[in-house]
Fold Orotidine 5'-phosphate decarboxylase.
Amino acid sequence: MPTDLILALDVPTREEAAPILRQLRGSLRWVKIGLQMFTAHGPDYVRAVADEGFDIFLDLKLHDIPNTVAKAVESLASLPIGMLTLHTCGGREMMTAADAARRATKPGLLLLGVTVLTSMNAAGLAETGVAAAPDAQVSRLGRLAIDSGLRGLVCSPLEVTALRRELPADVQLVTPGIRPAGEAGGDDQKRIMTPAEAARAGSSYIVVGRPILKAPSPAEAAAKIMADLRGTK
Ligand SMILES: O=c1ccn([C@@H]2O[C@H](COP(=O)(O)O)[C@@H](O)[C@H]2O)c(=O)[nH]1
């Protein structure tokens, strides 16, 4: 399957998001609504963006005790979402409970396990008590997630080649940490690749926020990234 683009809609207001969505309607399928927009505008905003014709990736990165996460999945099941994230470091019991709730309430939902945030490097991991290198920790958490019933992961594109060797072929690998050539550095993302590199590595989807949102023309920036993705297939 060709790699597809997901726009991370990380802006403060609906008014700021509206012209960006208007420009991308018809060319872009997936929009990621994350903590910034969800905490400000809530479930109604998810419904509103879906009503505009976009598929929704709800990136809430759930991480709590198993019962609480399972109940959150049940509550979110009434929303028009196609993907939802939880943190794999919540452990096997939490992921199994979340997946059981998904099967019972919204079987078509793809639950994605966030492995190691793309803003973390080895030094950052070590500060949290994780001695493993990021790629080793991603492999460990990725295998645990798939073993717990999940069919998709969020990781850096740098880890995709190794995960493709280790995991079943149908596992969806969603990769933020994308920076177009010449745009690397100067922000919080640490484990990065260009769109074309991520596609060649085997990402199912790439997630891009600021390189599109802060571009003089978000529509042109997104079109360029989509052309880069098509050029790799
Ligand atoms: O490990 C992760 C998990 C999620 N994200 C999210 O992706 C986007 C990336 O946005 P950029 O502006 O392109 O950096 C953002 O919404 C993050 O919450 C991630 O970056 N890394």
Notes: The mean pLDDT is 97. Residues 8, 10, 34, 59, 114, 117-118, 154, 176-177, 189, 207-211 surround LLZGTKA7 (CB under 6 Å). The longest strand covers residues 55-62.
